[in-house]
Amino acid sequence: MDKKFLILLFFSFILISSSSTQHVAASDWDNEYTNVILNAGEWYDVSGSLSSGTDISGFFETHSETQGLDFFIADDYNMGEWEAGRSASVYELSEGIHTMGISFTVQTTNTWHIVFSNAEGSTTVTVDIGVDLDDDNSPYYNPSNWDYTRYGETLETDEWWYTSFNLDAGDEIDGHFSTWFSSDGIYFFICDESNYNAWTTGGSATGFAIKDDYHQADIGPFEVPTSGTWYCVFSALDQDDTVTISYGIDINEGSGGIATTTSDTPPPLVMDASQIMIVGIGVVGAIVIIGVVVMLAKRNSGPEDFDDFEVVGVG
Q1: Domain containing 288 — which CATH number?
Q2: Structural domains counted in the chain
Q3: Average pLDDT of 272-296?
Q4: Averaging pLDDT over each range in 27-31, 97-101, 145-149, 273-277, which range is the top one?
């Protein structure tokens, strides 16, 4: 087997005890490697000397759905066998993967290798990688500390995600979001139903609390001016590569009352075929990462951008 060795990274893992508290930003990975370019025949090896029982967790995403990598974890001996083109015993083997969560408990004290391989590929692949020990740092919002959370929502460059709330005037939306890699940004805004429908059909719309290409940001507090359905929208439409997000949102009672209903499901929209075709994508599956099942994804796609937005309200 003819393989080209790209790079071997040794890192020391620093265990940091942490606890989730309300309105605290999600933590970045202990070890993050972004925009890693792997030509055909190359691989990326993240390794370290680890004790038996250590929990490895993490996530990786290639920059588009058309790019895939092979993944495995191996001890030092079997890594050497694989590099030499001989038969090797590896763990968590997956092939041709676009996005994947990592969850593995070290079997024996040894040097362990976490490998992202384009050795059998025919084209160049760019990948973002996050690795953590003992689940102390990850882009996670504890559901016990937020009214509404979403964990590990992956958006391609033609997609956005929203969650909607039926609110009374005076209610307040507060929260925080994070992309899973510091090199990735997301566009966020809050709007009412009429402006959401105008935006999704290519028209001019007004949004509030706009965050333009942020890795992490607060998304409020924003006081709802009128009763009705309000949308928190996370858009990857202007991004160059795949983006994965998590968020936590609180709804606080105002003078008008309390939140009555919530929804993550796209509503029916009136669309003009002469304008922009909106494609609704339903459940696309779930991934297991760090012992947590990622929620089923419901998202929308289309070529809209933010040029038509009037920036008003909370900045």
Answers
A1: 2.60.120.680
A2: 2
A3: 25
A4: 97-101
Q: How far apart are the first and last CA of the chain?
A: 55
- 53 shares a domain with 129: yes
Asked whether residue 191 falls in the same domain as residue 259, the answer is: yes
Please give the sequence-ordered ranges of beta strands (E in DSSP) within 157-301, or none if there are none.
Answer: 159-167, 172-179, 186-192, 205-214, 216-218, 222-223, 228-235, 243-252, 261-263, 279-281, 288-289, 292-293, 299-301
Integer Cα distance of 43 and 36 in angstroms: 10
106 plus 153 within the same structural domain: no
What's the pLDDT tens digit per position in 78-112? Answer: 999 999 999 999 999 999 999 999 999 999 999 99
pTM, entire model: 0.72
Residue numbers of the domain that contains 178: 143-312
Neighbours of 256 (CB within 10 A): 14
Integer angstrom CA distances of residue 272 from 10, 231, 269, 275: 55, 21, 10, 5
In a domain, 185, yes or no: yes
